[in-house]
Specification:
5% of the residues lie in helices and 45% in strands. It is mainly β.
Amino acid sequence: MITKRSAIGAVVAVAGLLAGPLPATAAPAPPPWTVASGLDHPRGLAFGPDGTLYVAEAGHGGVPCRRIPAGGQVVAGLDRTGIGPVCAGASGAIAAIRHGHVRRIVTGLPSPTTPADAEAAGAEATGAETTAAWAAGARAAGPSDVTVDPDGALSYTVGRGGGADLRTTAGLSGAALSDRGRFVIADIDAYLKGANPVSVLTVDRGKLVVDAGGDTLLRVGPRGRISTVATFPRRIVPAPAGMRGGARAGAPIPMDAVPTSVVRGPDGAFYVGELTGFPFPPGQARIWRIVPGERPRVFATGLTAVVDLAWGPDRTLYALQISRRGLLSGDRTGALVQVDPGGRHRVVVGDGLTAPGGLVVRGRYAYITDCSTCENTGSVVRVRL
């Protein structure tokens, strides 16, 4: 879904697999109940004050398709040669859901996609890399998250895949915080080149934005001033077998943090979840606790491919994982995990989720975007906690 340098993006205002030993699983939860369907690569979601549920749809790209040349920026965070053609269009959208009815209130947003099978499209990628790109949702960047102010005003992030060549082809460059009329409030890409804003949270006098491209948490003030709140470090991990570029299996390689989500905790601190970069090792994703002005502290470890976080009414933190067994496994079964105050975690929902992309909790229910890599067959499901 989200990888290190998979996109540049925009925040736009209106008025991107547990493995090893799996955590203990709670008593079987009731199967997810479908709230709305027919969504196009659905990602982050948020409730408005009137109960309307808003969903960011990454879209399905468009034509023509162009290949990212060797030496260009990555499409799926796999390496710097790209994995194949990118098809940029304006099919991204923000949808409003009420009583099961889906209405797209913002349309025409940038949506770059890659074919589901990069090798079939002529890319020189290994099978493992192709699988990772597909499992990570590389088929669509585009709109990735949405937040709602207390007065009902919306803000949303838009990620756009590829480097400068793709940005020129798509007809849009840079990353911005804008209003519904596309008036630019803040140019995020000018602040941090290669920015990939993937999550946005309304805070006092501004927004917090997670930039997966720069491994940073940013703050955007009310007048568009951008500052860095926290930066998340790389780690050294063993290379997987069959990696392109000659690295032998087990050789040390750097892995980016790739933060994907931010929420405010009941203690006033901010919590940030990691997807991790290639090779996406199972059980190596973390959750960070952030207090502005202090160094980030690891809150929980042992997770896999975290794409969103949410706090429940009982002051419990929940983490959504796009793939239970890791992005290189080919298993698209996701998981909803409860994270205890000490950082321990257990699976709440381990079946019935396919490549989930976003999470919000309202009352005793978790609302999840399901099949976040699916064109027009994604959905929002509800699970009782």
